[in-house]
Amino acid sequence: MLKQGLELKQTQKLSPLQIQTIKLIELPTQELEQRIRKELEENPVLDESVAKEQDDTEDGPREVSLSDYKEDDSIPSYKLRVNNYGKDERPQYNTFSVKESFTQSLMDQLGFRNLTEHQHSVAAFIIGSLDDDGYLRRDISSLVDDIAFRAGIETDENEVMDMLHVIQEFEPAGVGARDLRECLLLQIRTLKQTPDVANARKILENHFTEFTNKHFQKIMSRMGISEQEMKAAMAKILKLNPSPGGQIDDSYNDQAQQIVPDFVLTMENGELKLTMPRFSIPELRVNKKYANILMEAANSSERDKKEAATFVKKKLDSAKWFVEAIKQRHNTLESTMKAIIDYQKEYFTDGDEAHLKPMVLKDIAEKTGFDISTISRVVNSKYIETPFGIYSLKYFFSEGLENQDGEEVSTREIKKALQECVDAEDKHKPLTDDQLVDEMSRRGYKVARRTIAKYRDQLNIPKARLRKEL
Questions:
Q1: How many of the other CB atoms lie within 10 Å of CB of 400?
Q2: What is the mean pLDDT of each run of 10 residues along the chain (470 residues)?
Q3: 42 to each of 26, 29, 30, 133, 372, how far by Cα in Å?
Q4: Which candidate, 470, 390, 395, 408, places its Cα nearest to that of 445?
Q5: DSSP calls for 173-205
Q6: Most CB contacts within 10 A, which of 7, 84, 127, 330?
Q7: How many whole angstroms separate alpha carbon 288 and alpha carbon 456?
Q8: Could you give the CA distance from residue 184 to residue 132 in angstroms, rounded to a whole number?
Q9: What pLDDT was estimated at residue 250?
Q10: What contacts 277, CB < 8 A, 6 or more positions away?
């Protein structure tokens, strides 16, 4: 039997201003400026002008605000300007982590090789296929097909391998490796071939599985070397870099190789002071020419002028929403950061990780009155410069657990204690997870074994067997 019914649902439709604000809140400082530049290019109603006011004279240009005109459908008046930067017209950014592009470094080295144009193109494609850590994690046969389809270059597996071997001779040593073993071998072959290096090379070539599982006795027995020789060979291997691409950082994908803090926290006369870095957000004003078109068309019956007025009104509304969204973004970020500082005041006073309180998005949402989704957008991709270093806002958020006194402590404090336990252990007899539970208990933390295992993985701490040293 088919039933029919009427269901009433209440939905909330976001206004253009709300949509614009949500989009801008997600942007970090540097991307915001780029977004404003883009809006200036696309919206002819917006003009970038200097902060200095111009006198209204008959001869000179006059800036027009929306309050200068009215239209039949009552467009709200709004002065289209925003000025949230300081006296310096173009202050310097605080930029960090600006490094040479990993890909560009390899391409520069490729340019010094005596290759044909065809070989150069194949090698360049291989370089572009490397991961950020410098590895080639692509099957050679699929790479041949990819070069043909995407670059229109016919090649074969032999040529790709030849060009890969060329790249594997580049700096940093180990680049272009297809797995960890090959990466380490590429590096060990560049060293002076002493007896210790020779033993290290044999270990990597012939006993890699035993090496990764730390079965040292098996290796010594099969190679016929002493414990002292084994230790010397291991010392050579442990000095190698398992991630050669990390030496020249390309983790920002070339387009964004710097971090510009969205907030700066300083201590002045014993008080915490929060500022938002001054940057070149241009002052936005209505373009006089377009405003005049709208005013002229307000009482006109001519169809083309009416259409022009409709176009300009649409652009004016867009400009109004954009400028208001910038202001709301600024206020939202500032309110959220102040709430985080207030919540974690003890930490921000001395920078001691042990003073970081458990804090989740809901805590800050309740302090500010914003939605959790808004707090999440503010926190994402934002950084603060403090007297103790530069931190992502995500750093300050963590769940909480109880210690043996029933007090809630942050998971970050527990992880720090766990790391200290591992650092202090006897590496000849590393602590098992059960022993770590006991050690943490002696330090006053109630932590289950599965929690120890989870935090150990998050801290990239291997199992006890893999932490064992000779």
A1: 16
A2: 48 70 84 83 72 39 40 38 40 41 84 89 90 86 84 88 92 90 91 91 91 86 91 88 66 48 89 78 65 66 70 80 86 94 90 81 91 88 87 80 61 83 88 89 83 84 83
A3: 21, 20, 19, 38, 32
A4: 408
A5: TTTT-SSHHHHHHHHHTTS---HHHHHHHHHHH
A6: 127
A7: 63
A8: 17
A9: 41
A10: 29, 91, 93, 94, 260, 261, 262, 263, 264
The label of the residue with tokens 């950061």 reads 337
Residue 95: other Cβ atoms inside 10 A: 12
Tokens representing 223?
């190679």
Give the orientation angle of helix 449-458 with respect to helix 411-424, to 10 degrees: 80
Helix axes 140-151, 117-128, angle to 10 degrees: 110
Read off the tokens for 410: 């942050």
Cα dist from 73 to 45, 76, 294, 304, whole Å: 19, 9, 12, 18
Q: Which residues contact 203 (CB under 8 A, 6 or more apart)?
A: 211, 219, 223, 233, 237
Beta strands 408-410 and 400-402 are antiparallel
Residue 175: the pLDDT is 92
Cis peptide before 44 (omega within 30 of 0): no
State the burial class of residue 254 (Cβ atoms within 10 Å of its Cβ: 0-12, 13-18, 19+): exposed
Give yes or no for a contact between 137 and 131, defined as CB atoms under 8 angstroms apart: yes
C-alpha–C-alpha distance, residues 78 and 288, integer Å: 14
Sequence-separated (6 or more) residues with CB below 8 Å from residue 443: 417, 421
173: left (phi over 0), alpha (psi -120 to 50) or beta: beta
Kindly state the tokens that stand for 347. Answer: 């930490």
Cα dist. 435→214, 430, 448, 450 in Å? Answer: 20, 9, 11, 13
User: Beta-carbon neighbour count of residue 409 at 10 Å?
Assistant: 20
- pLDDT (0 to 100) of residue 186: 93
Give the C-alpha separation, 300 to 307, whole Å: 11
The full set of domain ranges for the chain reads 16-52+60-98+259-397, 99-172, 178-240, 400-467
Instruction: Write down the CATH number for the domain with range 400-467.
Output: 1.10.10.60
Identify whether the C-beta of residue 337 lies closer than 8 Å to the C-beta of residue 326: no
Q: How many residues does the chain have?
A: 470
| Residue type at position 442 | R
Local structure of 268: helix, strand or coil:
strand
H/E segment holding residue 279: none
Backbone angles phi, psi at 285, to 5 degrees: -135, 165
